[in-house]
Amino acid sequence: MKIYVCVKQVPDTSGVVAVNPDGTMNRAKMPAIINPDDLNAMEAALQLKEKECATVVAVSMGPPQAGEMMRELLAMGADEAVLISGREFGGSDTFATSQIIAGAIHHLGIKEEDLILCGRQAIDGDTAQVGPQIAEKLHLPQVTYATEIIKEGNTYTVKRALEDGYMSIQVKSPCLITCIKELNEPRYMTVEGVFSADEKPLTVLDYEALKDEPLIETETIGLNGSPTNIFKSFNPPVKGKGEMFVGSDKEMAMQLAEKLAEKHVI
Amino acid sequence: MILDQKHLRFQKLCRQFAETEFTKDLLDKLEETGDFDWDIFRKMSKYGFCGVKIPKEYGGAGGDYLSYAILVEEFARVSPVLSIYANTSNSLGGGPLMLAGSEEQKQKYLPPVARGDKIMVFALTEPGAGSDAGGTTTRAEEQADGSFILNGRKTFISGAPVADYCIVFAKTDPKQKGSRGISMFVLDMKLPGVSLGKPEHKMGIIGYPTCDVIMEDVHVPADALVGKKDKGFGYAMQTLDGGRLGMAAQGVGIAQGCLEEAVKYSKERKQFGRPIANFQAISFMLADMATETEAARQLVYHAAELKDAGKDAAMACSIAKYFAAEAANHVAYKAVQIHGGYGYINEYKVERFYRDARIVPIYEGTSQVQQMVISGMLLK
Questions:
Q1: C-alpha to C-alpha distance for B324 and B308, rounded to whole angstroms
Q2: Fold of domain A2-225
Q3: Chain A contacts of B13, Cβ < 8 Å?
């Protein structure tokens, strides 16, 4: 059984977002991290691996610098890492990215018992589109926003978070599941993993390796082939601070009513 | 020195772990109770920190001295006392066996120590034999069957209250003078005749308990002897040589922690209408702190690199320990000074760092002993 975990290296948006004069993000000025939701996907894969015999393969598309991120995933416990990297892929939007990643997974082979795990969304684009699009391209069933994954044979029972509750869905492998942070607490790298990460296989798939993949249309990848273009990015204006009331329900209701009356809302 | 990818990755792991797991609540609890915290120790063990420098064939990660120094530095940057939790097995605890243990001894003791299932500590100091370890009076009398009877008292033994095993140095041949005729033993702390003194109340590194170990007619088997009989003092000195690298790294971590706190505070704290960082009196102190910290770090990394290359590093380790221990104290002093009255209040991190820093020029060879080692090598 193989578990593919799709990961993305993203700029750390918890600090200040650096923007270039042309409106695009200045990634060089922001520290690169592993997309947080993807770490939940990796943790889920490693937990499944501990229960059953599985090979965990981390898959990412990105520049060569993302190689060190792949080593970190190997140090967490992934068995193999595949970095899809090539100038031709640069600037891809979600539509282009998902074809390339789907093509790469198809190239690596997906069997009946295999699973693909993704993070819900990346913190740089926040689209939550790549995971579902990969599933569509590969004609696989998908379950998004997983907060619990239980495996029995080739059947997965997934608890899927909704805004006002959850739903339980059963799905057969091969399938794709996107994970949210409530699913688990990602582990650190291990000491042993850090020291042995350089000995584990890290494969780079470039344009040459993937150009004949039937799932990839070479004219709809990269910056020029992508249907979406970024017009402008900017730091949103800081909102005013909220006010917290303390006390019993009645006291808080009184305070709220006073405030609203003050502002002539009521 | 520029760290390579592997060491950078290891540094990242240590930093991430320390920053996330060594919470204020945990650090306050250690300070209040003075007790060993088993939960954080188990978590460290689970991730493999206790076995960083123990070879792979004995259950460790087989890391080098540089990794070991990075581990202690990064942990000490957040909590000097918790850096000792992960240090002992890689240093004075596991070190003597890695140095002189037989294959059977290594197989028996090192894997559980590397996993953190067992704790092994080091007992050299006696009430009357500190810097002058040659003055050891603990006695080991060999019996006809090759076993030994141990009698004596070891003092200030870090970790003794929680230890399963203790590396003990005892005089096997009283006819030999000074540092000769001393042997090294691995003592099972559960043996009849082994008892502990009361836990000491220390100025700093509170939360890693320290007490005396008393041996009264303790019968240890022949295979408790580690290395050659009567050659223990040499093993002790060699172990301490590596150990002082770790304590030098602890000094660097403390200095770095103090520096970061001082930089942050001096930007926030306003006096005379502006942040105190804008006063040259403060900013020059910060510059001195950064300079001493970085110099200490480079000495430590260099000594580690020499050891990893298999070169003679005794002098480099002493220089690093001497400089880093003193630097930690200079930097901690200035960090408290920059904080003013707040630095004297135990709610502020620098107050604890200041007390913790004070042990570094004392244990594993005082600064004066390092001066003796360094000058001795210069003048021989």
A1: 20
A2: Rossmann fold (3.40.50)
A3: 75, 188-189, 191, 194
User: Could you give phi then psi for residue A140, rounded to 5 degrees?
Assistant: -110, 150
| For testing contact with chain B, the best of A195, A196, A202 (most B CBs within 10 A) | A195
Interface confidence (ipTM) of the complex: 0.87
CATH 3.40.50.1980 matches B120-230: no
- H-type helices in chain B, by residue range? 5-21, 24-33, 38-47, 65-78, 80-87, 95-100, 103-115, 232-268, 280-308, 314-339, 349-357, 367-379
Question: Which residue of chain B comes nearest to A72, CA vs CA?
Answer: B9
- At residue A28, the pLDDT reads 77
Residues of A in contact with B5 (CB under 8 A): 68, 71, 198
Per DSSP, the residues of A63-85 read: -GGGHHHHHHHHHHT-SEEEEE-
Give the per-residue pLDDT at B357.
98
B73 classed as catalytic: no
CA of A190 vs chain B CAs: smallest distance (Å): 5
> Nearest CA to B148 among B177, B191, B119, B118?
B191
Non-local CB neighbours of B350 within 8 Å, separated by 6+ positions: B258, B261, B262, B332, B335, B336, B339, B343
Distance from CA of B208 to the nearest CA of A (A): 23
Tokens 């200045």: give the residue: A26
Q: Which of B17, B62, B63 sits opposite A188 (nearest CB)?
A: B17
* Residue B213 token pair: 């170990």
**Rounded distance between C-alpha atoms, residue B13 and residue A196, angstroms:** 14
Which pairs count as long-range contacts for B2-9, CB under 8 Å and 24+ apart, including other chains?
A: B3/B66, B3/B70, B3/B301, B5/A68, B5/A71, B5/A198, B6/A194, B6/A195, B6/A197, B6/A198, B7/B66, B7/B67, B7/B70, B9/A68, B9/A71, B9/A72, B9/A75, B9/A189, B9/A194, B9/A197
Distance of alpha carbon A177 from alpha carbon A161, whole angstroms: 12
SS3 B44: helix
What is the enclosing helix (H) or strand (E) of A251? helix A249-262
Question: Do B57 and B292 contact (CB within 8 A), yes or no?
Answer: no
**CATH code for B234-379?**
1.20.140.10
Select the CATH number that applies to the domain covering B5-115 from these four: 3.40.50.360, 1.10.540.10, 3.40.50.300, 2.40.420.20: 1.10.540.10
The predicted structure's pLDDT at residue A144: 96
pTM of the entire structure?
0.90
Per the listing, tokens 């060089």 go with A28
B219-249: pLDDT as tens digits? 999 999 999 999 999 999 999 888 899 999 9
